[in-house]
Amino acid sequence: MNLEHKFCALGTDVTVTDGTTISGYASLFGKADQGGDTVQRGAYRSSLAKGRSIKMLWQHDPAQPIGVWDEVREDDRGLWVKGRLLTDVAKGREAASLIGAGAIDGLSIGYRTVKAQKDDKGGRLLSELELWEVSLVTFPMLPDARVAAKGDDPADAALRDLAAAFEGARCLMARD
């Protein structure tokens, strides 16, 4: 099975309460990522209807679960998630601290493409995805959907954009 990853920043709608509860959008519909892929509205419907537990991982590492997603649903905007970081797990404590400090601001989905078609710009329109996991990540694929950190300056933003470009290139090379 070929598991793919799609990155999205937590965005301005993310909330972190009590240092452990996190919610926000893991995927946005109709927005091309740096790899040229666009997730279409309804892409997760079939997968979510199966009721399978979606895992919360650290940087897509299946050996590092860091919490649980209590709610995963589609709405008109994208894939919304809400869950709890487990502070009894070392990486869960680290994730809570890094999010609180603004050092980590990205979410990324791990999925298998069920249905997609090429678009006229060389990317893909993803119409059905089998969702496996949503990870907290360092570099989001959608850099304009990021949460602003305290003291965020243009130099930091430029470095994040450069890192996202490298990640996009890595994803394109992995697909070939």
UniProtKB/TrEMBL annotation:
It comes from the Bacteria. The keyword Protease applies. InterPro entries: Peptidase_S78_dom, Prohead_protease. It holds the Pfam family Peptidase_S78. Signal peptide: none annotated. Residues 18-150 form the Prohead serine protease domain. Keywords: Hydrolase, Protease, Viral release from host cell. This is HK97 family phage prohead protease.
